[in-house]
Design goal:
Blueprint lengths: L1 H14 L10 H12 L3 H36 L3 H22 L6 H11 L4 H32 L1 H6 L5
Helix pairs in contact: 1-2, 1-3, 2-3, 2-6, 3-5, 3-6, 4-5, 4-6
Length: 166
């Protein structure tokens, strides 16, 4: 249970606004792939659940406090207004694609849930698109972790080290 909880906390930290800049989620999704190779499906579920909960909480923080934070930052740095306006245009024209592929686009994923909440994207729309994005973005690393684990376990030089002895 500790493994699964640590995966959930790691992926939550990767997706929650503020701390997500300092915590990369890829190692946790790779570890979930390793666990999947060893038939621990619950670990994958917990890793995805942590990422999903972090996205949801970031959305609600943006929904509740985003306007206030935006006004503060625009007063502090007036040039930021143009970027905020550009972000609004992108969300209006290509918002579905932006939310869906944010997880695959690296640093965009750090801010997308917060921005979606700030820009009052409907919760249902955000949830559906970000969940699909999480399955794409997190899923690619889970699959990679699974493949690497299967190759490491069966390679002769790695087996000689007896690192992954069960």
């Amino acid at each position: 249970m500790i493994k699964e909880l640590s995966l959930a906390l790691g992926t939550f930290a990767d997706s929650f606004i503020g701390i997500n800049i300092f915590v990369p989620g890829e190692p946790f999704y790779l570890a979930a792939g390793y666990q999947l190779y060893h038939h621990n499906v619950f670990a994958v579920f917990m890793a995805l659940l942590g990422g999903w909960l972090g996205d949801q909480l970031s959305y609600w923080v943006g929904f509740r406090y985003g306007q206030r934070a935006q006004r503060f930052l625009c007063r502090l740095r007036p040039k930021l207004r143009r970027k905020v306006a550009l972000c609004r245009v992108v969300m209006d024209k290509k918002g579905n694609w932006a939310i869906l592929f944010a997880r695959v686009l690296g640093p965009v994923a750090w801010f997308m849930p917060f921005l979606a909440g700030n820009m009052r994207v409907s919760w249902l729309r955000f949830t559906v698109l970000s969940t699909a994005g999480l399955l794409l973005g997190g899923g690619q690393f889970i699959i990679l972790g699974y493949i690497v684990s299967s190759q490491l376990i069966h390679s002769s030089w790695f087996s000689a080290l007896d690192v992954f002895h069960h």
